[in-house]
Automatic annotation (TrEMBL):
Source organism per UniProt: Nyssa sinensis
Matches recorded under PROSITE patterns: GH18_2
Location of the GH18 domain: 1-162
GO molecular function: chitin binding; chitinase activity
Upper classification of the organism: Eukaryota, Viridiplantae, Streptophyta, Embryophyta, Tracheophyta
Matches recorded under InterPro entries: Chitinase_insertion_sf, GH, Glyco_hydro18_cat, Glycosyl_Hydrlase_18
GO cellular component labels: extracellular region
GO BP terms in the entry: carbohydrate metabolic process; chitin catabolic process
Protein keywords: Glycoprotein, Glycosidase, Hydrolase, Signal
Listed PANTHER family: CHITINASE, GLYCOSYL HYDROLASE FAMILY PROTEIN WITH CHITINASE INSERTION DOMAIN-CONTAINING PROTEIN
Name of the featured protein: GH18 domain-containing protein
Similarity section: Belongs to the glycosyl hydrolase 18 family. Chitinase class V subfamily.
Length: 162
């Protein structure tokens, strides 16, 4: 399970809840995988968990909308969780700006005071490639019902099979 690292109910700044890498610390999927392997678990017994949902944060200032921007709680649901299908609808309906961060391997989008961190197609592809290149048994998603017309599932499948 390489997600739920950050969320709007327990952090006062935006951040990726499922970063593959964390250049400044230990809060990432790759760090967790390395820790398990260094502890003696064989890579081929590990699967990499990816979320098909994100978290929506309320920005303190709509003009400060990057990673680690000040936020004051969730948007939408009680904990801010939002299905990938809803994220794509939000992007379309609000003409939201989308950002892919290749350093941490994560997506986010924003419109007004709403900021959403999530895994998009490129993120899923990079994470599945990471799992395959590092000899992991495979990957899993929580939860496929949150996908948008199987887009993330098909991307993961294509990447693993390539």
């Amino acid at each position: 399970m390489a997600y739920d690292f950050y969320g709007p109910t327990w952090s006062t700044v935006t951040n990726s809840h499922a970063a593959l890498y964390d250049p400044s610390g230990q809060v990432s999927g790759s760090y967790g995988i390395r820790a398990w392997i260094q502890a003696g678990l064989s890579a081929n017994k590990l699967v990499f968990g990816m979320p098909f949902y994100g978290y929506a944060w309320r920005l303190v200032n709509a003009n400060n909308h990057g990673l680690l921007a000040p936020a004051n709680g969730p948007v939408g649901s009680a904990d801010g969780s939002i299905r990938y299908q809803q994220i794509t609808e939000f992007i379309t309906q609000n003409n939201a700006t989308t950002v892919y961060n290749a350093t941490i391997v994560s997506n986010y989008c924003y419109a007004g005071t709403t900021w959403i961190g999530y895994d998009g197609l490129q993120t899923i592809s990079t994470k599945v490639s990471y799992a395959k290149q590092n000899g992991l048994l495979g990957y899993f998603a929580w939860h496929v019902a949150a996908d948008n017309n199987w887009a993330l599932s098909q991307q993961a499948n294509r990447t693993w099979g390539a």
